[in-house]
Every structure is written in C-alpha cells, then in structure tokens.
Amino acid sequence: MSIETLGILGAGTMGSGIAIATAAAGGIEVTLVDVNAQQVDKALAGARTFYDRAVEKGRMQAAEAEAALGRITGSGDLDALGEAELVIEAVFEDFDLKAKIFRQLSGIVAPDALVATNTSCLRVSDLAAHVSNPARFLGLHYFSPAQINPLVEVVKGAETDPAAYDAALAFVKATGKLPLACRDSYGFAVNRFFCPYTNEASRLVSEGLATTAQVDRVAREALGVAAGPFFVQNIIKPRINLHAVRNLAPLGAFYAPAAPLLVEHGEADKPFAIAEDAAGVAGNDGVVADRLRAATFLPILQELDEGVASAADIDTGAAQALRFTPPCQLMDKLGRAEVERTVGALCQTWGLAQPKSLAKVGSLRA
User: Fold this and answer.
1) Using CA atoms, how far apart are residues 117 and 294, in angstroms rounded to an integer?
2) How many Cα atoms within 13 Å fall on the side-chain side of residue 206?
3) Which of 53, 79, 116, 313 could pair with 140 in a Cys bridge, judged by C-beta atoms 3.0 to 4.6 Å apart?
C-alpha cells in the first residue's frame, strides 16, 4: 500500500512540523486540519517561512519550495480528512482528548485508511479502544522539531495488522524519516529514559545537591549529551515535558514527577533559570554523574528486559532524536561492575528489582 494522501489533525507545533516535512519529501498531498482557523493560518505561514529559509540556505530550490507549499491544504473541518489514506492525530498529550477525537474520526475516515497517534508516551493499545478499526491503528511518534528531526517511533498496538504496520514503516521511509520500530509501552523507546533523566535532574536540584547549570554541565561530561536536561526542557517547554513525565507514572513511583521543581516549572510553563557559573555545589559532581547515569540506564535496561526495542535501536533513537552519546554503547564501555554500582544504588533507593539485562552489560551491542 503506497500512501499518497496524508491528513493531520492538529495544526500546532507537532502537526505543522509533520506537514512541512511530509510535503517537502514530495509526492504526498497533505491536509492539515484544526478547529482553530487562526492556528491553521499560522501553520501555513510557518510552512512558507520554513521553505523560504530553506531556499535562502540552499537546501531547496525555489520551485521545490513552492511545490511543497502547494501540497499543503488547511481546513477547519474534520470532514476534510475523509479522503486521506493516512490520518495522524497530533493534538495535546491528553488521553481523554485523544480518545474523544478518535471516536469522532471513526465516523469520518475511510474504512481502509490508516489512523495513527503522535503520542509520545501513552499506550497505543489503550487509545485503540476508541477507534472503530483498531487493526488499522498504530503509533507514529515524531520528535520535535518534526520538520527537522529525522526520527519517528513506529509503534505496533496489540491489534495492529502487520500489513498496516508495514505500510506505516514504508510511509516513514518514503518521507525521508528514520523509523524506529518499537513495542507498545509507556514512553516507547526514547521517552522511556529521557523523561526519568529530566526527572532525576530536578530531584538533584530540589534536594540541594546541585544547581541547574551544574547538572547540565555534568550531564554533558558524564553522558556525552549535546545539551543538558534543563537547557533541553527550556527548548521543548517545561509544560510539555511535565505532561510526558506524568504519563509514565503507571510504570511506578520512580517514574512519577519529582516535586517541587519539575512540577512547579511545568505547571507554570516557566523556563528554568540556568546561571553562567556551572561550578555548583562543591564536591558533588560525582553524585550528580552517578544519579544521572543511573536514571538513564535503569529505564533502558528495563525496556530491554521487556523487549520494547533493541539496544541498537535505542542507541539510534538516542543519537538521532536527542543527540545523546549512544547509551547502550556507553554502558558497554563503562562495564558491568560500574553500571551495576550506579543502577543498583537507584534500585535500592526505590525498592526495585535489578534488571536482568544488567548481566549483558559489556556486550549489549554485541
């Protein structure tokens, strides 16, 4: 099945980004729908600005940019999605809102159309209960900014038909994106560890063990990230990150939001203050490094136990979506004893069983 028409519900940051990326790939007509007409106009204007800048930087020819823009149609009417071969929901990360939308879409989309959610953390199989044909339903999680970021997690729900899943994988590849196949689970492959990593960063500051600037610096040094957790949260918005963390709470207390820093800034959508002086609390760099590594490694080892994704795919996702040094490679480099020391301490703190995949550290990527 070759997909030539895409419908996107939600013209916000993610929906407009997906539209821009897909139209630029060529050959696919995109219908971008939002009940807020001003949001649709803003998205179309944003697409033109993006393509114009691409032309200025020599990344697109002027004719290519005009053709791409011409492939995007905006609408405020859900019925405009009725002819699309694939419809992607890209609204705010709220289960009840998404469920309501899927019940509406079930009476609009063609019976043979694929329907996907762009959720970053919610279980696809839970949302599938609100879709008339769950065999045609799956997750397509684009990473922000979707017009640039190459990664898309392709998530197979419990009832997703293999042929529908293969068609979605082919669509992602055809539009110039890198698909990461993963099993349905809270947080999927990447947010499963990114959210706890940002959560632990807030715990460290809330406990008075470090400053935000110190945490960001140590994260760059200890995990090889391009930018620290507070800097990244300010880019993706604290409100969005808090909501993603909250959606992982069913996985247990360790995953629940750390109070008060993460919650305070997330609920107010207030950027974190990051001072220029990154020295922080003297003598605590080692503690910060241990806890950031453990909070990243533990969820990865747990998802390896659960078969959510392979070590190679997790590393690809971390590098492509987040600009992390591949974490499974890093664990192999550090060695089992060192990883077990930090992860074991975290397991003891939270009363968790040590992951079975700890025994494979040293050869996770073998």
Assistant:
1) 31
2) 15
3) 116
State the amino acid at position 125 in one-letter form: S
C-beta separation of 195 from 172 below 8 A: no
Q: How many CB atoms lie within 10 A of CB 327?
A: 27
Tokens of 153: 């997690």
**CA 291 from centroid of its chain's CA atoms:** 22
Residue in the block written with tokens 């997703």? 160
> 3-state DSSP call for residue 153?
strand
Give the other-Cβ count within 10 Å of 345's Cβ: 13
Tokens 């859900």 sit on residue = 78
Cβ-contact 163, 141 below 8 angstroms: no
C-alpha to C-alpha distances, 125 to 11, 169, 322, nearest whole angstrom: 24, 18, 26
Contact 65, 105 (CB under 8 A): no
- Calpha distance 29→218 (Å, rounded): 45
- The C-alpha atoms of residue 75 and residue 40 are separated, in whole angstroms, by 7
Would you list the domain boundaries of the chain?
5-183, 191-360
- How far apart (Å, rounded) are the C-alpha atoms in residues 185 and 303? 9
For residues 160, 162, 168 and 171, what is the CA-based torsion angle, rounded to 10 degrees? -170
Q: How far apart are CA 219 and CA 324, in angstroms?
A: 10
The separation between the first and the last C-alpha atoms of the chain, rounded to the nearest angstrom, is 35
Top-tier CATH class for 5-183: alpha beta
Q: What is the mean pLDDT of each run of 10 residues along the chain (366 residues)?
A: 93 96 94 96 97 97 97 96 97 94 95 96 96 96 94 97 97 96 96 98 96 98 97 94 94 92 96 95 97 98 97 97 96 98 97 97 94
Give the tokens for residue 166.
């293969």
**Which of 141, 138, 143 minimizes the C-alpha distance to 86?**
138
CB 14 within 8 A of CB 144: yes
Q: What are residue 51's phi and psi, to 5 degrees?
A: -65, -40
Could you give the CA distance from residue 178 to residue 161 in angstroms, rounded to a whole number? 21
- The token pair at 361 is 């550290």
Which pair of structure tokens corresponds to residue 315? 């590393």
- The model's pLDDT over 41-55, given as tens digits with 9 standing for 90+, comes to 999 999 999 999 999
